Amino acid sequence: MDKFKGIFPALLTPFDKDGKINADSVAKLMELNIAKGVNGFYVAGSTGEGLLLTIEERKQLFKIVADVNKGRVTLIAHVGTIATDQAIEMAKYAESVGFDAISAVAPFYYGFSYQAIKEHYYAIANSVEIPMIMYNFPNANGFNFTKALAEDMFANPKFIAIKHTNSDLYLLQQFKTMACKPIVYNGFDEMFVAGLSMGADGGIGSTYNFMAEKFIAIYNEFKAGNIAKAQSTQTEVNEIIGMLIKYGVFAMEKGVLTEMGIDMGECRRPFLPLSQEGKAACKRIVEMLK
Ligand code: MN9
After folding, report:
1. Does the active-site annotation cover 170?
2. The whole model's pTM is what?
3. Residue 86: which CATH number?
4. Residue to mutate (ligand 1; options 162, 206, 238, 252; most atoms within 8 A of CB)
5. Residue 290 Cα, ligand 1 centroid: separation in angstroms?
6. Which of 28, 59, 158, 163 is catalytic?
7. E strands within the chain?
8. Residue 48 belongs to a domain
């Protein structure tokens, strides 16, 4: 289970000028982060614009990532979508190219019942041998897993972890008391030190793409008991995250990395392109990180 702990960038998906996946930039982004010491990648999630990729593109991305990685760090494939069969198709593919786990957001839009959500998750999880990481993101799908529901889901041993993108850190701590001892990931980067103090085993985050070293530092400082240092590093990164939120998180993250020399392209529509103010803010962020 240790390979699932630690710092996992929610990998951004770079696009080329024609809006296609830019494999060269995927490789550069992964190498940058592997060199910094990340524990793995969460691929094609919210940050990776996974829900704006076609099924074929998500599979293509999984292949690119697995080929670059060559078994070095832990790979998690986000296969979530509202159609169960499409999620299964992507899960099987991710497993076939060597991913270590799959993850899926709960199906959204139709306001599915808990029973429907559970059967969707079980169908996906049972279609492969690799484990499932539940994705709790109530802001995105209007569904919040309580501890009781999570316990019910985790009766299936394929479920090993929860990505908790929710500022309710009491719930995060409650998940940690489940008998099956799940791995729990902090989902909001701006609250990482708080998540750790409530028991998170690590984090999956979008801002890690360009400043993983800061989150590795917070994690190590926290583990070493240097809480004041961990907090001050958190305060430092939150100044940057505030700027990202102001101008559009994913577009800004791509802008910062492009400024750092990795051509990330733009986010897919309906995300808006970066404004001039946003571009200037990216330059300031690169300076702040020097
Ligand atoms: O994957 C990300 N969640 C979403 C985690 O984007 C929904 C976070 O890393 C946030 O982007 C970040 C900024 O709010 O915490």
Report:
1. no
2. 0.98
3. 3.20.20.70
4. 206
5. 23
6. 163
7. 6-11, 40-43, 74-78, 101-105, 132-136, 159-164, 183-186, 202-205
8. yes
Residue 8 token pair: 């996992």
In a domain, 221, yes or no: no
Which stretches of 37-168 are DSSP H helices? 55-69, 84-96, 114-125, 138-141, 147-153
- Which token pair is 240? 């940057």
Q: Quickly list DSSP for 123-145.
A: HHHTTSSS-EEEEE-HHHHS---
Residue range 48-100, pLDDT digits in tens: 999 999 999 999 999 999 999 999 999 999 999 999 999 999 999 999 999 99
Cα of 123 vs centre of ligand 1, distance in Å, is: 27
Token pair 């733009």 is at which residue?
A: 266
Q: Which residues contact 113 (CB under 8 A, 6 or more apart)?
A: none
Q: How many folded domains does the chain comprise? A: 1
Domain that holds residue 184: 2-213
d(CA 100, CA 92) in angstroms, rounded, equals 12
Q: Is 246 a catalytic residue?
A: no
